[in-house]
Amino acid sequence: MEHPLHSIDCRWLLALYAVIPLSVLLVALDLLLWDGWLAADVLPGDPNDWPLWAVLFGLPHIIASLLTMANGEYLVHYRRSLLPPLCLFLLIAIGGHFGPQPLSYNLLFIFLAFYTIYHVLAQQLGLTLMMLGARPDRLYNCWKWLAILAGFAIYINVYGTRFLGQWEVAGINGYQLMSALGAGLCAAVVMLSWRLARRAPPGIGRWYLWANAAMLVSALLINEIGYTLFVILIPRVIHDLTAYSVYITHDRNRNRKGAGSLCYRFTHAGAWSPFIVLPLTSLLIAYALTSHQHYPWVNITILTVSFLHYYYEGFIWRGPNPHRQYVAFKR
After folding, report:
1. Cα–Cα distance between 304 and 174 in angstroms, integer?
2. Of these four, 22, 127, 186, 278, which has the most CB atoms within 10 Å of its CB?
3. Of the candidates 6, 8, 7, 16, which has an alpha carbon nearest to the alpha carbon of residue 207?
4. How far apart are CA 10 and CA 124, in angstroms?
């Protein structure tokens, strides 16, 4: 008798957005009660200055995603769709490091910034559509692209000084311009969220819709106040833990079919082991890579697999692909 698939509870995915009010509360307490002690003495100007941050966020979930591919059936199925972009992304990463500077480095940052924001928000907004039980139409696509552009403007303000330096457009400071652009785009996202929510049936989809709008607005406002760590923390926690929820559920269901990937075969893992094996394995690999990131080819490898992850995550969980048959959602 075939057992039903383990499913991902959409209430859990919505609960991850609790990081927004918690972050806002900490910022408010620091401003109103602690006289800026948190910002001045505790939080780093750049969270990447915390070694633990680089190990926990970003790269581990990318490695975990690659580990779901460590299966002969999957590699055969995806080889034609993955090999050409792999070569392209490798060339982009090499060009960004060894091409004419600083132009190549600046262009690489802009490409990485936009692709990262697109990947993060496309995941969350796509889940919104699934929870609403709707198909993408003109209003949704407009909402999606305004949200992506707003996220890109915020991302440039967060990381731009480090990678681009100071820049101007028609005599206007580039970061002030990005702040104004981000504010206008966030306002448009809120208005379209209201229109989308009005026509949506009551339920978790509406809450998830507004949670994504709140993520952008809170990131914009917190960044303007100067608490950069929370601007980065909010989407990272939501995106990475959502991704791990999908990967772990996929691996649990696949293992029950006796077709687990190599890391489970080596550990003789059972049905519950993805909760331990997948995060632990991905964290260890991410730690090994980030510890040697000062070597150019390690950095190029990280960039290449990151871009490849952004690319294939856009389609492997949809349609008749092998990944999708092992993932179900409970609304």
Report:
1. 29
2. 278
3. 16
4. 12
pLDDT tens per residue, range 10-35: 999 999 999 999 999 999 999 998 88
φ/ψ bin of 271: left (φ > 0), alpha (ψ from -120 to 50), beta (otherwise) = alpha
Q: Report yes or no: 73 and 259 within 8 Å, Cβ to Cβ.
A: yes
Is 226 in contact with 46 (CB distance < 8 Å)? no
Q: What are 64-119's pLDDT values in tens digits?
A: 999 988 877 888 888 888 999 999 988 888 877 666 555 567 888 898 899 999 99
Look at residue 270 and give its three-state secondary structure: coil
Number of other CB atoms surrounding residue 275 within 10 Å = 13
Kind of pairing between the strands at 168-169 and 172-173: antiparallel
Pairing verdict, β 172-173 and 328-330: unpaired
Helix (H) or strand (E) holding 168: strand 168-169
Indicate the burial class of 212 (C-beta count within 10 angstroms; 0-12, 13-18, 19 or more): buried
Report the distance separating Cα 63 and Cα 308, nearest Å.
11
- Quickly state the pLDDT bin for 43 (edges 50, 70, 90): confident
pTM of the model: 0.89
Helix %, strand %, coil % for the chain, to 5? 75, 5, 20
